[in-house]
Amino acid sequence: MLNENRIPEGYMENAQGCLVPLANIRPIDLERDALVKELIGGFKDINGGLRLFKRKSFGDIDAFVQLSGERYDVKIGGGKGNVTLVSFDGRYKVVRAYSETLAFDEGLIAAKELIDECLREWCAQSRPELRAVVEQAFKVDKKGRINTAAVLGLRRLEIADERWQRAMQAIGDSLQVCDTKGYIRAYERDSSGAYQPISLDFASV
Q: What single string gives the DSSP state of each residue in 49-70?
């Protein structure tokens, strides 16, 4: 696509990257283009404002946590950690929280092989439900991702076999934190005393 600053006067660029004379563009198409660009400008302004407010909110909360720690001569390092702040009258609540995206490295392959060894040996006497649970845990979705919670759930099974125990160890060792995201949510108490989220979702305001 051409840079808008390099489009000659009297022309507009279409979706295929071609220059079209203004005289050849229908008035309704020009009106649509103007409306879309006006709305997008507003969306970008709001998006930029939200980014700045988010950054400020994280900074302010972190500074307050540090201030609170100074009461006990404690210096709190880093901003990571879940925090809930409530106004004096209890009407408002702000929650800062972090969520981690977990994934498995290649060690999961070894765990799966050890589990398969167990299942092959136990095939005659093991309950089919166990095989179903294992197969479901290692099933991938359409994007090729494994259900982390299902795999970790296998570690709750009480199985004493040494190979199974090694497989569970391999699962634990292969678990990696690949992403951490922080978010802030604000709540206001309604007339019944329940906290309701103050939504920043465009569809729900």
A: HHHHHHHHHHHHHHHHHHHHHG
Q: Are residues 4 and 14 in contact, defined by beta-carbon separation less than 8 angstroms? A: no
Residue bearing the bigger pLDDT, 33 or 119: 33
Dihedral Cα 153, 173, 111, 139, nearest 10 deg: 50
Q: What is the pLDDT of residues 54-65, one digit of tens each?
A: 999 999 999 999
In the numeric block, the tokens 């949510």 are attached to 185
Q: Which residues contact 205 (CB under 8 A, 6 or more apart)?
A: 199
Q: Round to the nearest angstrom and report the end-to-end CA distance of the chain.
A: 36
Q: Do the Cβ atoms of 17 and 1 come closer than 8 Å? A: yes
Can you tell me whether residue 138 is helix, strand or coil? coil
pTM of the complete model:
0.68
Show the DSSP H helices in 88-142 as ranges: 107-122, 128-137
**What is the rounded CA–CA span in Å between residue 10 and residue 22?**
6
CB atoms within 10 A of CB 46: 12
Per-residue pLDDT, 125? 63
- In sequence order, which residues have a C-beta less than 8 Å from that of residue 178 and are 6 or more positions away? 101, 102, 103
Residue appearing with tokens 């922080």: 182
- How far, in Å, CA of 139 to CA of 150, rounded? 9
* Contact predicate 179/103, CB 8 Å: no
